[in-house]
Amino acid sequence: MSVDIPDMSELLKLTPTARYGDDAPDRAAAAGANAVADATGARGGALHLSAILPAVSAAIGHPINTAVHRDPKALQRALGLPDATSAIVVLVDGLGYWNLAMRLGHAPYLRSLMNEPANQRPIATCAPSTTVAAMATFGTGTCPGLTGMAGYTQLNPVTGKLSQLIQFTDAIPPSDLQRQPTVFERLALRGVQVTSCGLPKFKDSPLTEAALRGPAYVGGVTPRDRLLAACDAAKTPGLTYLYIRDADKTGHSYGWDSDKWIGVFERIDAQLAALRHNAPHGTLIVVTADHGMITADPDQRIDIAAEPQLSRGVRVVGGEPRALMLYAEEGEPAEDIAHRWRERLGGLALVRTRDEAIAQGLFGPVDDRVRPMLGDVLVAAAESVTIVDSRTQSDKATHLPSVHGSQSMMESDIPCLIDVA
Ligand SMILES: [Zn+2]
């Protein structure tokens, strides 16, 4: 059975806001595999990025519950993970479920995994569907409302300025901003071997410290070094994490629909096949992603700098071109900004005030200290729209060929592929 791929117009529709919790979404539970492969199906619960590490912890016999997941065993069952003494979790940056499904002809190993009915169901990433938010959601098994990592850029309430959370420029220090324990830390405290394999330069990066702290870090210069290090670590019972960056990077530079991206995708498939080949017998392998990607339409690019109706009352624009966080000027009601944006954008974006977004569970449960970091108004772009601000963003940043951050199927549906070596 192969995966049915909806039309691009369907894939660009915004999905319902994913829930946090331990239950499988109703539709998936009722109808089985492929049941959430449309834009209207309920998402989240156990079928969510935040569920992966708690579920894997249960699979290796050391269940870790988190602030949003009380029952790791239920997550393991819902995701269909077999028990194993050792597990390798691979996160491929930017490889959305539908990006993958639409290019399977280039990826014999991933194709073989996607032929398994158990793998033919997307799971949901967090909102916004972007790396900093997703990494912290993944690493802690919680949600942006608790991790305080809610966008590529967000307000630093201490300084009143925007912080950028890849490099943590102008940001609250990583371990102070992100206070949830990671699943890696909790496992290590129990004496379980936890290893992370990545680029040497990411070992002490602030993003690693915030979102993924805890494991022994093995830096490898080449992709092969890193995957062999992961296979070596997996000889000891425990959890190994492997990060693969290039699909996202190439997507942003050349477009996910470019030949360059396909070349990178083919290499990633070969690396994953080599991982599977070299992993110790019986190792559980889980392949997931932080988000997918869409192709931006230059004719649907909206520049806030050129639209007084959009810039009015907005002090700072955070987030990213598909998921904006608008911070109001002093005394400006969020409802008024939201009203003007809805009037201008109509169906081109989903516009919510912070209170509306929180009430809908967009960020999961929200800590009081995180609340002011979130925008007064949250904007999720629809179709192939990007919304930029040429007053503050670089020309490159406002013209990326492929982007992500919003709630379309393309961006928010991610794979959770299961294999056993
Ligand atoms: Zn990205």
TrEMBL record:
- Superkingdom as given in the UniProt entry: Bacteria
Q: Which InterPro entries match?
A: Phosphodiest/P_Trfase (IPR002591)
One of the Pfam families matching this protein, by short name: Phosphodiest
The molecule here is called Alkaline phosphatase family protein
